[in-house]
Amino acid sequence: MAQHETDKVRTVTQDETPDAGWVKLVEAVGARKDQRAFSQLFDHFAPRVKAFLMKSGADAPLAEEVAQDVMATLWHKAHLFDPERASVATWIFTIARNRRIDALRKSRRPEPEELTWGPEHEPDQAETIALQQESEQLGKALATLPEAQRLLIERAYFGELSHSEIAAETGLPLGTIKSRLRLALERLRQEMK
Amino acid sequence: MSTMIKHHLTDDLLMAYAAGNLPEAFSLVVASHVSLCDECRARLGEYEAVGGAILEESETAEMTADSLAATMILIGQMHATGDTAASVAPQKPGLFPRPLRDYVGGDLDTVEWRSFGGKVRQAVLPTDKGASARLLHIPAGVAMPDHGHNGTELTLVLQGAFEDEDGHFARGDVEVADADMEHTPVATQGADCICLVATDARLKFTGFLPRIAQPFLGI
Ligand SMILES: [Zn+2]
Ligand SMILES: [Zn+2]
After folding, report:
1. Range of B215's domain?
2. Mind listing the pLDDT tens digit for each residue in B134-156?
3. Interface of B with A in 125-144 (CB under 8 A)
């Protein structure tokens, strides 16, 4: 990263993004098994994870069970969370997605080989803050998309509906769904600029 | 290593993998390519971030009254499995990226090859029914039969190289072939070509296409 860019990022304080707050809580769970920090994370994320699972086709009891499981996984893996690589919401999304594949689809998910930092690696504040700002911008961009486009993207992520099933339900041919989805994502990228 | 890769995953595949919607065999190819390719790893991170934003913006579903307490009990019962020192420990670099090694049970020397017809050998990997995955060993200079596709076929080169109508594919390159593509991959001279191939087994048009069987792919 060029020097001036680094400086620009550094002038922003961490407290300006909500994700920075979540990061501190996850770090407290990872470092000290802090139950109060965990319960704050639980209150915010567990109901979102549960709703996500229900939209993916789980009934309420199964969604409850899997959401608890996702949060318990968060507890055990908190020390592995890396704020330079993902926001807390993104990290929890990936845990929920993987548990959904196990629990709802009864399938395995091969994961890419982890990149390991060198032994002397210190988390880079500027990188972390830049990522948090991007995540926040992404959320805003998503919220400002036209309703139809946003719903299409959401449904693609809820998982139990494949492109072809969305096609069957909306009556649109697969090619149209794919190009609309691409359009929606393109628009999302534009919003981010 | 990454800078040599010329043929990457499509946005469709990366998004579907990020969303958790691919059959296991396709996920294996995606995870293996991403293990070798920093560019696709970064693109995957963007698609996962979209998932995070959706989760954050999503509506909520009320948890049951004793949910947090139940989760604390669950935490006590669960052992901190996965991502422990053993599974994170770096392995000796080999031919196969880590996700593939997990399916094979080791590197190239542990593969149990079976004849595939002609000089080509294969090893089928265990995955769910949505698609099938296999390793192919094609001796240098040998051609695969000319074929079309009934769904999607992903081919990731691990050793050697092949050439077809779409270009030259070497280690790390992935070819995405779909229904309107016909090709005749030929392993280039030099080293034998070893690749990971996943094919979509959902043969929707079985009744209409007489030559559907693609016997050399065994589907
Ligand atoms: Zn790539
Ligand atoms: Zn092919």
Report:
1. 1-219
2. 999 999 999 887 777 878 899 99
3. 127-128, 130
